[in-house]
Amino acid sequence: GADLDTGGGPAGAHPAGHGVSVADLRGPAEPAPGGQVRRYTFTARQTTVEVAGRTVEAWGYNGQVPGPPITAAEGDLIEVTLRNADIGRGVTLHWHGYDVPAGEDGAPGVTQDAVPPGGEYVYRFRADQVGTYWYHTHSASDVGVRMGLYGTLVVAPPAAGLDLTLPVHTFGETTVAGGPGAHDAAPGTPVRLRLVNTDSVPHRFVLSGTAYRLVAVDGADLNGPGELREVELRLPAGGRYDLAFAMPSGPVALFVDGEPGLRLGVGEPPPAPDGWPELDITRYGTPADTAFGPESRFDRSFTLVLDRGIAMVDGVPRYAHTVNGRAYPNVPTQLVREGDLVETTVANRGLETHPWHLHGHRVLVLERNGHRVTGSPLWMDTFDVRPGEVWRVAFRADNPGEWMNHCHNLAHAAQGMALHLRYD
Ligand code: C2O
Ligand code: CU
Hints:
Blueprint: E1 37-51, E2 54-61, E3 70-72, E4 77-84, E5 94-96, E6 120-126, E7 131-136, H1 141-147, E8 150-155, E9 162-171, E10 174-177, E11 182-183, E12 190-197, E13 203-208, E14 213-217, E15 220-221, E16 233-235, E17 240-246, E18 252-256, E19 259-264, E20 300-313, E21 316-323, E22 334-336, E23 341-348, E24 354-358, E25 363-368, E26 371-372, E27 379-380, E28 382-385, E29 390-396, E30 402-407, H2 410-414, E31 418-423
Protein name: Multicopper oxidase family protein
Organism: Phytohabitans kaempferiae
Domain Plastocyanin-like: 45-158, 318-422
């Protein structure tokens, strides 16, 4: 099929502007002054995991699912040596939401070849974005991520209180919100919950028993986040929400898609709430100035129409998930120049939600369905474009290379909903 890994031709051979090839755009060898080197070795291999009392086949980095958590402080150098023991489809590490130099991006067929069994690739980049991120394989990613080749990446100063990273993942029919289920936390303890959606579909979260603030989206802090209570948060595939609150005297419970997940404190857990309204994140927080906005003059404007239909795949007409009527790798590449201010309008004409994701750049959301963002500046790397919706977003082209943009429903991406963005 339209395998995401095969569309790009010889990996790394792509020009990336200024006559440089993508494979040469590598991260620095040293941390920033005062930073440390965080060195990891990940060996991807077949394994099993226990889920709801059953043993299921999985693939894991170091045989763990999720893979080893990566934590760092701002300015550290992260160096990960990736090896592949026995994953026949090959593996990579893609740093989701982290704007690494292109040669570290882990997109097979674009920035490197997938690491075959017995092979190795060393990734190096500076931890210069603070916040909650994740990593995952980008080789046959539809299968590989579902099987367990993912983990979390958190860049933050040492936390006071309880700081929990909760990757949410579905194994078969069972959705697990990472980490052990119950924690003790004394009243008044500052709590931060970092929710990471590693699935291909959105998840609904509600937190009951406390008021809280949604303090960051996709790793980026929100400006002036207000207090929330009795709302539902819908987290796009690939997205992250950080929640913060002070532990109240009673218990707190997190529900995922209506099912009980994490519990904090002691006492009767609050009952599963029902029918709480969804938070509109485009109206949440306090507006603040950004370097550009909806009225800026843009150097490039792209429109992407997402749909499902017949398109040419490997030279034959097939049902595919399409961008502007075409399936990857036949979707025209977006060309930008370094320094360009780029706007993109993404419209969903289909019947399924498409979590649109950009590599190498986070975007400022300008408008959703013609309404401009009235809350905090909202920077995202993956935004859910629901059926009938139109999102207008913008970014500064400041990370030369060649990049995948795709739907983060990874089955949709594998069936054509992807394209490249390249610096001229
Ligand atoms: Cu998290 Cu190209 O993906
Ligand atoms: Cu999609």
